[in-house]
Amino acid sequence: MLIDGRRLAFFKPDIAEASTIEESLNGDYIQATFFEGSDTPICMLASLSEVVQTKYMSSGSQGIFIQGTLDESARKTATHFLRGSDTLELNNAHHTARGGSLFVDSGGFAYVGERYEQFKRVILLAMLSRAYILALEKRVSALSESIRKRPDRLKAIELHHNMLAFNAGFYPRLPVNLARHELSKVWDVFSQSYRINELRDEHTNQLSAIALWLRDLQEAEHARLRAARAVAEASAIEQQRQKEAKRERRVNIYLTVLSIALALLSLAVAIMALPNDVLKLAFGWIK
Prior knowledge:
The chain is 58% helix and 16% strand. It is of the alpha+beta class and 287 residues long. An eight-stranded mixed β-sheet has the order 3-4-5-6-7-10-9-8, sandwiched between helices. A hairpin with a 2-residue loop joins strand 6 and strand 7 (61-67).
C-alpha cells in the first residue's frame, strides 16, 4: 500500500514484516492482515466514504476525518459523530503534532487535521489497536473454553507459551517508529484509551496464574497417586509377609510332626532290636 506515493514506513520492522496491507484501486476500502505467522492472525477491512466528511468503519469501530484545525465547529462534528450528543469538550481532544487533534471514544475516533493521507495512517493504527484487542479476546475465549470443559494443564501451558511468543514477536510497546512523532502520539492515545497494554498484561498474568494453578493441581494429584501407590505397595508387602508366615508355620508343623514320627519310629526300631530276654523282662508284666 502506498500513501502519498510512498510505501508505509511508520511501522516498526517486526510489525511491518508480519502485516499485509492493501488498498483498493478506487480507494474505497483498506484491507489489513496483522500478526501473520502467529497463532492469531487478524484480518480486517476498513471501508471509506467521502460523503460529507471522510468516514471509516471497521470491525465495530468508526472514524471521521475533519479537515482543518481544532475549533468549536470541529468539536461539534466530532462529538455528534462519536456520541450523537454534545458531550465532548475541546479539552477531550488529544493534540498530536503538526496541528493535528484526535478524539477517541469507545466506538471510534475523530481526527482533525489538514491532510487526508495522514488520516489513512491514523486508520491503520486504529485497525492495529483493534487487532490487538481481537487477538486478546480470542485467547480469553480459548482459555475459558479449556477451563470450562476440564482443567487442561497442557492446553494452559500451550496458551501461555503462545501468549509469551506473541508478546515477544508481535507486541512491542510502541509499534510505530519514534521518528514519526505524530503517529507515535496517535498510537499512545489509542493504546491508553483502549487499555491495550493493561489488557495484555492482565491476560498474560491470568494465563501464568492458571498455568501455575493447574501445575499445583497436577502435583497434588501426583502426590495423591504416589501415596495411594505407597499404601498399595505396603499392603501387598504385608499380604506377602502374612503368606510367608503362614507357609512357614505350616512347614514348622510338618517338620514337628515328622520329627515326632521319626522319633517314634526310631524308638520302635530300637525296641525291636533288643534281645528277647530283655524284652521279656521289660514287658513280661504285661499280660
